[in-house]
From TrEMBL:
Catalyzes the reversible phosphorylation of pyruvate and phosphate. The lineage of its organism: Bacteria, Pseudomonadati, Pseudomonadota, Alphaproteobacteria, Rhodospirillales. This is Pyruvate, phosphate dikinase. SUPFAM superfamilies: Glutathione synthetase ATP-binding domain-like, Phosphoenolpyruvate/pyruvate domain, Phosphohistidine domain. The active site is at H469, C845.
Amino acid sequence: MTKWVYSFGGGKAEGRADMKNLLGGKGANLAEMSNLGIPVPPGFTISTEVCTYYYANGETYPQTLKDEVMAALSQVEEDIGLKFGSTADPLLVSVRSGARASMPGMMDTILNLGLNDKSVEGLAKRSNDARFAYDSYRRFIQMYSNVVLGVDHHNFEEILDEVKEDKGVSLDTDLDAADLKKVVAKYKDKVAEQLGKPFPQDVHEQLWGAVGAVFGSWMNQRAITYRRLHDIPAEWGTAVNVQSMVFGNMGSDCSTGVCFTRNPSTGENEFYGEFLVNAQGEDVVAGIRTPQQLTLAGKNAQSSDLPAMEECMPEVFKELNAIRHKLEAHYKDMQDMEFTVQQNRLWMLQTRTGKRTTKAALKIAVDMAREGLITRKDAIKRIDPASLDQLLHPTLDPKAPRKILGRGLPASPGAASGKVVFSAEEAEDWVNNRKEKVILVRIETSPEDIGGMHVSEGILTTRGGMTSHAAVVARGMGTPCVAGAGEIRVDYAAKTIKVAGQVVKEGDIITLDGSTGEVFIGAVATIQPELTGDFGTLMEWVDTIRTLKVRANAETPLDAATARKFGAEGIGLCRTEHMFFDPKRIIAMREMILAETEKGRRAALAKLLPFQRQDFIELFEIMQGLPVTIRLLDPPLHEFLPNSEAEIAEVAKEAGVEPAVVKARNTALHENNPMLGHRGCRLGITYPEIYEMQARAIFEAAVHVSRETGRTVVPEIMIPLVGAKKELDLMKACIDKEAEAVFAEQKYSVKYMVGTMIELPRAALLAGEIAKTGEFFSFGTNDLTQTTFGMSRDDSGPFLEVYRAKGIYEHDPFASLDQAGVGELIRIAAERGRATRAGLKLGICGEHGGDPASIHFCQGAGLDYVSCSPYRVPIARLAAAQAALGGSSSSGTA
Ligand code: ADP
Ligand code: MG
Ligand code: MG
């Protein structure tokens, strides 16, 4: 018989941390903490299998669930000597969701469940605090009615405001027990009016209603959106945790808070956290009051006037700090914890692996490895390669002029500029429909804002602390965020921001520096990132582990220099056509394309030769002896054709012909399906003089640089779009002939290789043949994906969305390599190619070269290197190391 319910509390538990799949993250860690002897209010977890069962069986529960829940509940009652539904000594519980992967704020927790008109009196007596009892009851009615019964919050807020107004006070805390009793009566009337039936007084009905609501919330829009954004399968389900309540709102010796074992923003090994005295549950996260710091250091760093816990609750602080060390040593990772203090007694309510900025992740991983808490390999495995992207983006140029608008907390690092919008919906509209870059400005954010937060360049809030919703979510997304900028006034109605006489309107540009908390008017210049500090250290470790080489796709000197700076070990793809778009060159290029005779083409090519040679000289110099793979001209010629009358006239003049001649040639070159047309080596086959010129430019440059610097220069000349060995034979012969000629003229020779792109299925299948001539292969997976799927990358967006929604293809095959189809062709080509030519050098170029999951595949397929855009080189280096260490890729693909 399946066990559906697992108890925890009182120094023992039926679950464990490694049972996350079954108990959810929250439940598994509550169990683990109990087992560690850490004070956790007793409770039980209803497993994720019940959620799965619930949805598989028309939203019903397994037969034995009820008995198991009742037994676990009795156990809790026994542990703490209170009774659920008792009028004298009522046990109150929280009902909390908890999925396998943490989904912060995605699902709704209900607190104080078990209160009704009778038990509230019991609570009042037992606590000797009627105000507290009625405050708990009115919170419960509001939460329960909202989450379970679907009554909107504003109904309750209006009532609360009315009562305060009648009394002539402005703070909730100004209301006494009698006032709150009135609030409760009005709340219940409101619920009855809205639903046509009274607020449930039966505590068991309350409990099952709440359990059902947690399971129901698994399929709410917020949760679905979050799962979509984070690739969490719907099948995982959520667990439900039912836990006895502890109260942080019973007076000034009570509090509630959130803390991290290390600083989640910088990674510094310092205790970091915030708390509120006399508060409950979500009050800290919701940013309703300004929280106090745990430590004196934190208080000083934030120049806060409020006392730190270290000062005002020193005993509790000591205990909390000891738990911090215990949990971190146990989990061997930075923890994010929730706690409540009831009458000076500390209770832990949650621990989980803390979210952190990438900068903090690197520091924590490197520090923990140095502290001996984890190994270097663990440190390498800890970092999500894709997250490095955050550090590879620009930061504010310290020298750039700027005009400060205001300051808040440095909630999520990085610099971002954009146009101000005031709601999540507007953010999505402006970004998706108007193609604008926006900064989302809110007083505070809530889970409904997720979509808008995701598309924004940066997020600015005027309320809330470092653990407010905006801060936590922004850090997770790697979006720069300034939170709690209290001096900034946001007026939603007028759509303005005001600070000390300065006004910023919707659509105006502002810049955020999430690393300092500063907000600037207008756009501020940025500077490029560097691989230094912990990032540099981790990258050194990575290089001792990985076996795949990492090259970059680069053709300009700037790209090549960036690639080297980020540790590229060569150029894997230099696209020569990109060198012809320069205004000075495009005319000669057009002249060449439009020439009707070989003589005409040669005349134009002669003009291009010096440019091309100079390009290669620069590349070879920058790459200092590292391999450079140069792809000869590849794209359909029409990409270079003149469009406007003026362009046509210019080309005509340069070529000494009438514009009409150019136009006619233009028309003649039109293709219906240019991607499958006259391109790639087909150009070299029909016009060998083009490849001859390019080969000459390469050899002259290689000889020049090798002679000048004394370094070996090894050009790897790559022929695109080969489908038959004969194509490669012809092109190689033409290149060899040019090499011989240049080496004889220069009386100097260099080594070189001639290889091919594998980007047609035919080439992959005939790789054994092609390898007889080709000295290396580079998998051009952009085209190989297009040609394998028979699907154009540029046209597939709209229907691929539908395909993914219908689960036909799980991932965009242009972003992450299709391992089943395209991958199979790569495996075949690798095997057949190497059967012909032992040790044949194999690489991959194209978008996939920078995708961690694809890199894992490349490791498995025995490739020698991956090549990606210069900014992704560190990502690829890390992913390659992780692939060498085995295990699954963090951005995994099917
Ligand atoms: P989330 O997943 O959104 O963090 P939680 O289930 O952790 O939701 O609960 C929300 C808030 O309620 C947290 O601040 C938590 O500390 C508080 N809370 C949950 N259960 C209890 C409890 N048994 N006693 C006191 N506070 C609780
Ligand atoms: Mg929580
Ligand atoms: Mg291609």
